């Protein structure tokens, strides 16, 4: 009996269990090889493979091995974030989840958020591969994407992207006094050297 799940996330375990009786001893096997110290009624499986139990009757020393049970360990999905690294306040910017490595047997989940320089996190409502974010204040932000699998519990990973947000610059154009132009004339405007 598997008290957990056939597919488990890397780093986690699932409990396999059998019924035990007096007069018998038990040995858990992985791919046909005895697992050292695994002689109880339950076993916490944490490796991909085929599990079985060999039962020995103490009085006769007869051994019988039961049916096998397969467990598969699934690696966490790996994604990157595509998007800008610098922007101005109050502009909509699209960020996209880019696949690094994922198990295509399962359906991915997506969750977005961003954190400002003061450590305040804002969760996005987007549960899709893309998210449109707008930053209301200037500062340094960290956009975070958490991905997992719908079919496998506790199998999430996350990645982050730093974004620098600045205010929209405003400039005043000053023209020399005494210059008069006709509507059809042109006027040369130049930025200061530190902004050109």
Highlighted features:
five-stranded mixed sheet, mainly beta, 196 residues, six-stranded mixed sheet, single chain, rod-shaped
What does this protein structure show overall?
The protein is mostly beta strands. Helices cover 0% and strands 46% of the residues. A hairpin with a 5-residue loop joins strand 6 (49-57) and strand 7.
Q: Specify the oligomeric state.
A: single chain
**Secondary structure: number of strands:** 16
- Proportion of residues in helical segments: under 10%
The average pLDDT value, as a whole number, equals 90
> Could you tell me the radius of gyration in angstroms?
31 Å
Unreliable runs: none
Distance between the termini: 72 Å
Percentage beta strand: over 45%
- Judged by helices, strands and strand pairing, the structural class is mainly beta
- Tell the overall outline: rod-shaped
* Largest sheet: number of strands, sense, barrel closure: 6 strands, mixed
How do the helices and strands follow one another from N- to C-terminus? EEEEEEEEEEEEEEEE
In a nutshell, what does this entry contain?
The protein is mainly beta and about 200 residues long. The chain has strands at about 5-10, 15, 25-30, 35, 40-45, 50-55, 65, 70-75, 80, 85-90, 95-100, 110-115, 120-125, 130-135, 140-150, 155-165. It has no helices and 16 strands.
